[in-house]
């Protein structure tokens, strides 16, 4: 049986821990879901670097990126589910010293910027690189 559980706030905690005794952790709001294709259209650095936005568990663009003890960034819900059955890193396979998760504000801010850019492209068709017309000089 696992000693780790996901509480009602999506936090991974030791099941013997009294959740009322913890300080309340405020999570940043989830980002809006935008298709990977739309974000890739505005990402200027190419496919090789785009993987920083995808969860190694779900392989989807993250909306609530968090860093685990292994230093990798995951979608919060995906890594929380993972920790219900394993204390090993999904990426390295090594045992982790703890199951704490910290919001990855850097990835989150960059993703938010890209999401905003997809909205700008949607509202201004001349900015859409896939429209077939030449870009404005």
SSE layout:
Elements: E1 4-6, E2 12-14, H1 36-42, H2 47-50, E3 65-67, E4 73-75, H3 76-83, E5 102-103, H4 105-123
Antiparallel strand pairs: 1-2, 3-4, 3-5
Helix pairs in contact: 1-4
Tell me about this structure:
This protein is an alpha+beta fold and 137 residues long. The protein contains four helices and five strands. The protein has a three-stranded antiparallel sheet. The chain is elongated.
Tally of separate helices: 4
**Structural class category:** alpha+beta
Shape descriptor reads elongated
Query: Average pLDDT value?
Result: 82
How many β-strands, per DSSP? 5
What is the string of SSEs from the N terminus onward? EEHHEEHEH
Strand count, sense and barrel status of the largest sheet are:
3 strands, antiparallel
N- to C-terminal distance: 62 Å
Unreliably modeled segments:
130-137
Radius of gyration: 18 Å
Tell me what portion of residues adopts beta-strand conformation.
5-15%
Order of the strands making up the biggest sheet? 4-3-5
Task: Write down the oligomeric state.
Answer: single chain
Approximate helicity band? 25-40%
Concise structural overview:
This protein has helices spanning 36-42, 47-50, 76-83, 105-123; strands at 4-6, 12-14, 65-67, 73-75, 102-103.
């Amino acid at each position: 049986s696992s000693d780790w559980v996901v509480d009602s706030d999506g936090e991974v905690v030791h099941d013997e821990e009294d959740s009322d005794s913890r300080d309340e952790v405020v999570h940043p709001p989830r980002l809006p879901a935008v298709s990977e294709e739309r974000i890739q259209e505005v990402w200027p650095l190419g496919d090789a670097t785009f993987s920083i936005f995808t969860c190694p568990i779900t392989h989807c663009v993250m909306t609530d990126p968090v860093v685990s003890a292994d230093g990798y960034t995951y979608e919060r819900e995906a890594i929380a589910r993972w920790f219900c059955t394993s204390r090993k890193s999904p990426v390295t396979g090594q045992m982790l010293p703890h199951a704490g998760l910290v919001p990855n504000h850097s990835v989150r801010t960059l993703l938010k910027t890209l999401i905003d850019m997809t909205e700008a492209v949607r509202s201004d068709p001349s900015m859409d690189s896939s429209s077939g017309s030449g870009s404005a000089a």
